[in-house]
């Protein structure tokens, strides 16, 4: 059957479908439809072959075209259709069974067509009639209504563009479950391109066609075809090369709006020209004057044509390539930028391949040279004798020597630096000779023996005749300073140690305060230590407080008796007979006892107390009154001291020293020594400098007028420093350490604030043994002489 004409569309004729027989249902159920479609195909092929064998004229061809189309004939041509069908039935070729369908779109059996059944005529060809209809508008005028133009899908134009996928940004993975991959501009489905089998894919990968990239167009799903130029650009991009020979990655900027000649067209600013652009530049004037001066001095010479001799010299230098930059070096005057290269010494006779016999080493010299280390040898080789130069072997250290020579040239300084020859001794401060700073303690003059265990504290009375000591045996003893003879002793406790002994300042009374356990005992030594008048005045000082406390009891705001943290009591009669006339009982063990300069106030420190508010207490001897100045103290208190002339109170915690004004009742200053654990402090008699000792082996000098940090830090001990003390009248101070030594220093302090203090080490005193890692525990100065008394863990007291 001839193919359908281009541009024609098949029209479907609606024909009532007859009722099917029950045999057809049985065939569907039994699957007896195999080969039905093959029979139809055979009949069409046979028919087409029969038609090709006949010589038809033009009218027969038109009839065959009409019959070969898929359109159903109209009712007017029904007889012609019947005639053609009868002709087909009488043909010898196999035909389609009568029960089968005719046409692809009719859905009507041919056998059911009869004159009694009305058949809808076929629609006329669209090209044979106008594609519009005449209608009447609202005004009664004719109106032409055109129908829609059907798109042509049967175009055989090979130049037509490939339908583009119009799904937009939707991924193609959404169409994996469908046989199509999208829609074209007319709404038709775009079929998924066929994919070859595994063998075809392997063959395609082996025989790569020209322009094959392995890439797939995401819109159409087809392989992307790239030209040779595009492939070259991609290859260069993957190699980080320029895409093309004429490609410039850094093209010059095209000045469309700025540049030369565009100043007036596109000005950056509309401000008028400043005056400085019309005035000669002062900077350029200076540069020109420098050039003029250089020309006058001959440093800048005008250009002149080179002479033939100069040209020959330049050509000779150009022909001879010299790599030694110092080969043509000539002596020049000293200049900071002229540093000659280090030159090698000229070779001697021992470096010759045939040296004289006197330069050749004998067997002993050779063995001695081989046994020496490389650093100890006077030369790197031994002279050897060879009869000819060609017999000289290779030098084993040739490469090493050349490398070291290159290092010498490479590391040669290019700038001459003036080296300062400074004597290190000249950088040290000029200190006076210790012999010029006498007097100071030099030797041990007396010993105090008698304590059982450690001697914890010593004190010299204001007259300078007697020394009091306290130790672990619970006794307080008084010694004669010059001879070391024991004059008086009293046992305060059989279990507690005497931690502190201290004399009351002043010569009007003779009172010794001793801290034993949690009590402070005020003692008047018996014997010939004091005169009867002095003893009487001392008793009056101790007894005056009982009358004041009874007349003025401390009351609270509610009128009740105020509880006190300290108790002032008379000791038992047996202790009074030994000279103990007053006892102050505290809540904890005091470790420090310091007297005020007026001798009526004293302060105690109890580091082991439960509350920090009661760690520091100030007592009034004449009133038998105890005060705790701190409601809450920051840190653990270690020791305290009073200022010699001002109402200042120094409190030392483990790492800080705070200075309080007792009159104004405020914090005056806080010092930061930088020590880990402060052990003791001592204030200079002038009150302007403070010494701080610490358990981390440091002695710190604080100048109170300079700042919070130490003025000097002295590290001369190998173990912890237990005590430090200023001399009351002389420029001396000493410290005691667990290493068993005392170090005496000269510390000169002047009243001028512009002059710093002078510290000079004088003497190291050794006289105590170290017992259980404890050495010297306390040191004390004589009030007038350059004598010091020390207490050690070995149970001995020394006078130096």
Oligomeric assembly: single chain
The shape is extended
Instruction: Decide which structural class fits the backbone.
Output: alpha+beta
Question: What's the helical proportion of residues?
Answer: 10-25%
Protein name: Ribosome biogenesis protein erb1
Organism: Vermiconidia calcicola
Layout: helices, strands, pairs:
Layout: H1 22-30, H2 36-53, H3 58-68, H4 78-90, E1 132-136, E2 142-146, E3 180-183, E4 189-191, H5 198-206, E5 212-216, E6 223-225, H6 228-238, H7 282-297, H8 308-319, H9 363-371, H10 398-410, H11 424-427, E7 446-449, E8 455-460, E9 466-471, E10 475-480, E11 486-491, E12 498-503, E13 512-516, E14 519-523, H12 532-551, E15 567-569, H13 573-577, E16 580-585, E17 592-595, E18 601-605, E19 616-620, E20 625-627, E21 639-642, E22 648-652, E23 657-661, E24 666-671, E25 678-683, E26 689-694, E27 699-703, E28 712-714, E29 721-726, E30 732-737, E31 741-748, E32 758-766, E33 776-781, E34 788-792, E35 796-799
Antiparallel strand pairs: 1-2, 3-4, 5-6, 7-35, 8-9, 9-10, 10-11, 12-13, 13-14, 14-16, 15-16, 17-18, 18-19, 19-20, 21-22, 22-23, 23-24, 25-26, 26-27, 27-28, 29-30, 30-31, 31-32, 33-34, 34-35
């Amino acid at each position: 059957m001839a193919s359908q004409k281009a541009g024609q569309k098949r029209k479907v004729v609606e024909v009532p479908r007859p009722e099917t027989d029950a045999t057809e249902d049985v065939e569907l159920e039994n699957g007896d439809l195999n080969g039905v479609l093959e029979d139809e195909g055979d009949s069409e092929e046979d028919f087409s072959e029969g038609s090709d064998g006949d010589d038809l004229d033009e009218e027969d061809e038109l009839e065959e075209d009409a019959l070969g189309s898929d359109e159903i004939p109209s009712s007017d041509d029904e007889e012609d259709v019947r005639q053609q069908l009868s002709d087909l039935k009488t043909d010898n070729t196999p035909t389609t069974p009568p029960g089968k369908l005719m046409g692809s779109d009719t859905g009507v059996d041919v056998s059911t067509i009869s004159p009694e059944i009305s058949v809808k005529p076929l629609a006329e060809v669209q090209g044979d009639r106008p594609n519009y209809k005449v209608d009447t508008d609202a005004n009664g005028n004719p109106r032409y209504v055109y129908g829609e133009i059907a798109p042509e899908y049967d175009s055989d134009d090979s130049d037509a563009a490939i339908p583009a996928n119009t799904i937009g940004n939707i991924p193609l993975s959404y169409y994996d479950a469908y046989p199509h991959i999208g829609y074209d501009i007319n709404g038709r489905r775009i079929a998924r391109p066929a994919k070859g089998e595994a063998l075809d894919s392997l063959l395609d990968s082996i025989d790569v066609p020209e322009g094959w990239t392995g890439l797939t167009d995401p819109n159409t799903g087809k392989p992307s075809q790239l030209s040779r130029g595009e492939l070259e650009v991609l290859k260069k991009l993957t190699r980080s090369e320029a895409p093309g020979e004429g490609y410039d990655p850094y093209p010059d900027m095209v000045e469309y709006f700025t540049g030369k000649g565009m100043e007036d067209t596109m000005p950056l600013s509309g401000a008028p020209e400043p005056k400085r652009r019309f005035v000669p530049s002062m900077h350029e004037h200076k540069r020109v004057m420098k050039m003029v001066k250089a020309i006058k001095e001959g440093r800048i010479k005008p250009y002149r044509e080179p002479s033939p001799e100069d040209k020959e010299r330049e050509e000779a230098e150009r022909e001879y390539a010299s790599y030694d930059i110092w080969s043509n070096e000539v002596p020049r005057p000293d200049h900071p930028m002229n540093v000659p290269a280090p030159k090698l010494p000229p070779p001697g006779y021992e470096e010759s391949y045939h040296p004289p016999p006197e330069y050749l080493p004998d067997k002993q010299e050779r063995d001695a040279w081989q046994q020496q280390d490389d650093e100890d040898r006077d030369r790197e080789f031994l002279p050897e004798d060879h009869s000819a130069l060609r017999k000289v072997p290779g030098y084993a250290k040739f490469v090493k020597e050349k490398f070291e020579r290159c290092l010498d040239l490479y590391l040669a300084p290019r700038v001459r630096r003036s080296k300062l020859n400074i004597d290190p001794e000249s950088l040290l401060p000029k200190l006076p000779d210790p012999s010029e700073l006498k007097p100071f303690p030099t030797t041990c003059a007396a010993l105090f023996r008698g304590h059982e265990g450690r001697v914890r504290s010593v004190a010299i009375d204001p007259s300078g005749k007697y020394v009091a000591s306290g130790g672990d045996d619970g006794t307080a003893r008084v010694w004669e300073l010059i001879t070391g003879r024991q004059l008086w002793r009293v046992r305060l406790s059989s279990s507690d140690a005497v931690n502190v002994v201290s004399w009351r300042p002043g010569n009007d009374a003779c009172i010794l305060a001793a801290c034993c356990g949690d009590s402070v005992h005020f003692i008047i030594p018996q014997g010939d230590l004091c005169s009867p008048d002095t003893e009487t005045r001392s008793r009056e000082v101790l007894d005056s407080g009982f009358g004041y406390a009874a007349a003025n009891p401390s009351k609270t705001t509610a009128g009740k008796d105020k509880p006190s943290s300290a108790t002032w009591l008379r000791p038992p009669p047996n202790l009074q007979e030994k000279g103990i006339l007053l006892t102050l009982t505290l809540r904890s063990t005091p470790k420090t006892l310091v007297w005020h300069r007026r001798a009526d106030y004293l302060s105690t420190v109890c580091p082991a107390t439960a509350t920090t508010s009661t760690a520091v207490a100030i007592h009034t001897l004449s009133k038998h009154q105890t005060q705790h100045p701190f409601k809450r103290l920051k840190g653990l208190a270690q020791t305290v001291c009073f200022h010699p002339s001002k109402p200042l109170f120094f409190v030392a915690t483990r790492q800080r020293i705070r200075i309080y004004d007792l009159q104004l009742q405020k914090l005056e200053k806080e010092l930061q020594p930088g020590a880990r654990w402060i052990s003791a402090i001592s204030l200079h008699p002038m009150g302007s400098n403070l010494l701080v000792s610490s358990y981390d082996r440091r002695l710190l000098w604080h100048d109170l007028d300079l700042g919070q940090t130490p003025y000097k830090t002295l590290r001369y001990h190998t173990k912890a420093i237990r005590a430090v003390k200023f001399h009351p009248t002389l420029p001396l101070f000493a410290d005691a350490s667990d290493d068993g030594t005392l170090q005496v220093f000269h510390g000169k302090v002047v009243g001028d604030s512009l002059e710093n203090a002078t510290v000079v080490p004088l003497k190291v005193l050794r006289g105590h043994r170290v017992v259980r890692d404890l050495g010297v525990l306390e040191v004390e100065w004589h009030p007038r002489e350059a004598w010091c008394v020390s207490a050690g863990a070995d149970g001995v007291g020394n006078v130096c």
